[in-house]
Amino acid sequence: MKRPEDCETMPEVRAGIDRLDVALVRLLVQRAGYIDAAARVKARAGLPALIVDRVEQVVQNVRQTSMAEGLDPDLAEALWRQLIDWSIAREEAVLGKSDTAKGE
Questions:
Q1: Residue 75: its pLDDT value, please?
Q2: DSSP 8-state secondary structure symbol assigned to residue 49
Q3: Segments of the chain with pLDDT less than 70
Q4: What UniProt keywords are attached to this protein's entry (predicted)?
């Protein structure tokens, strides 16, 4: 795959984007596997799907990583909050909806 700065035509750009999209989907599939594991672990531990402190920790981690890597941290936060909402809904499908917890 050509680096973005080496692309000279739209087909080269599109090919790079398409390859990255496949990689991103594969990473999201792996992340979903961890969400499923979290639901199993939380079920055994009696924890709710939504743990507010953990959500904010994940968001802060993503913002810090984004700043370090040169991505707009507001964009990253918005994307991750959507991803987190989806993840919590996925866990709630297993655990059921319950009160939120402050810690793990």
A1: 98
A2: S
A3: 99-104
A4: Isomerase
Q: Are 7 and 16 in contact (CB under 8 A)?
A: yes
Angstrom CA distances, 34 to 69, 72, 77, 84, stand at 24, 26, 20, 12
Supply the pLDDT for residue 44. 96
Stated pTM of the model: 0.85
Residue with tokens 């909806």: 97
Is residue 3 marked as binding? no
Q: Using alpha carbons, select from 38, 44, 40 the residue that is nearest to residue 58.
A: 38
* 8-14 CB contacts, 8 Å cutoff, 24+ apart: none
Between the alpha carbon of residue 52 and those of residues 40, 56, 69, the distances in Å are 19, 6, 26
- Amino acid 102: pLDDT: 53
Sorted by where each starts, the structural domains of the chain and their CATH numbers stand as 4-95 (1.20.59.10)
Q: Is 97 annotated as a binding-site member?
A: no
**Residue 91 annotated as binding?**
yes
